[in-house]
Amino acid sequence: MNSQLQAIVAALEGAGQRVQSLLVDVPAAQWTRRPEPGRWSAAECVAHLNLSSEAILPLVRSAVHETASAPAPVRYRRDPLGWVVWRAMAPSGGLKTRTAPTFEPRVVDAPEDLVADFIRLQAGLTACVADAEGRQLDRVTLRSPFDARIRYNLYSALTLVPRHQHRHLLQAEQAALAAEAVVSPATARGGSVWSRA
Questions:
Q1: DSSP 99-150
Q2: Are strands 151-153 and 141-143 parallel, antiparallel or unpaired?
Q3: How far apart are CA 170 and CA 158, in angstroms?
Q4: 127 occurs within a structural domain
Q5: Which structural domain, as residue segments, surrounds residue 28?
Q6: Which residues, other chains included, contact 56 with Cβ-Cβ below 8 Å and sequence gap of 6+?
Q7: pLDDT digit string (tens) for 95-136?
Q8: 27-46 core/surface letters (b: 16 or more CB in 10 A; e: else)
Q9: Is residue 174 part of a domain?
Q10: 3-state class of 63 per DSSP?
Q11: Are 145 and 63 contacting, i.e. CB atoms less than 8 angstroms apart?
């Protein structure tokens, strides 16, 4: 597989591993506890990512299959807007954006169900990347499902998916740690406290 596509697959797999680690390491009660008013809980972060994957997956799948399989370039390139969005989406970046109402988590499933859905959707995204091998991904554009004003090429879209995931998984991990800090004083006298290795 092309090394750039391999990097996307590795990033998707890494996101899956982080979600599964949350499921193992974080007690269920802490999944739904918000670190503070107006900020999402770990469960809400994962639910948002599932909503996002459900929206982008059919668009990416369709675009991949409609893309010419003529010789792919030696190196894929993001288009300018795709590059700007990719830079702004850095997991540790300070840029905050407002989530469209469609992608705000309203009903949050049990942690096991959230993670199962995430892994299922991740498999579909990974299959799209594999199907993209040998295709001219930077020659076709698609409209962002998150903002209809934004269009970027298919390679940009594929790189943005795991970038967005890792951004919100960091948020989920931080929310879980904040939830632990809230319950720690109550449990420190006699109960066990979850801690990350």
A1: PPGGGS--S---HHHHHHHHHHHHHHHHHHHHHTTTS-GGG-EEE-SS-TT-
A2: antiparallel
A3: 20
A4: yes
A5: 3-187
A6: 125, 145, 157, 161
A7: 566 776 677 788 778 999 999 999 999 999 999 999 998 888
A8: eeebbebbbeeeebbbbbbb
A9: yes
A10: helix
A11: no
Report the predicted TM-score, pTM, of the whole model to 2 decimal places.
Answer: 0.84
Please tell me the predicted confidence (pLDDT) of residue 181: 64
- On whether residue 195 sits in a domain, the answer given is no
Phi, psi of 153 (to 5 degrees): -75, 165
Are 121 and 56 within 8 A, CB to CB? no
Token couple for 65? 């299959």
Which amino acid, residue 32?
Answer: T
Which 3 state secondary structure label does DSSP give 93? Answer: coil
How far apart are alpha carbons 148 and 161 in whole angstroms? 17
Count the domains in the chain.
Answer: 1
Does 135 fall in a domain? Answer: yes
Q: Give the side-chain half-sphere CA count within 13 A for 173.
A: 18
List, run by run, the mean pLDDT of 10-residue segments along the chain (197 residues): 94 97 91 88 95 95 84 84 86 67 78 95 96 88 87 94 94 87 47 35
Say how far apart CA 161 and CA 8 lie, in whole Å. Answer: 9
Output the pLDDT for position 6: 96
Domain CATH number, residue 11: 1.20.120.450
Helix then strand then coil, in percent of the chain rounded to 5, is 60, 5, 35
> Measuring CA to CA, how many Å separate 178 from each of 15, 41, 188?
21, 9, 15
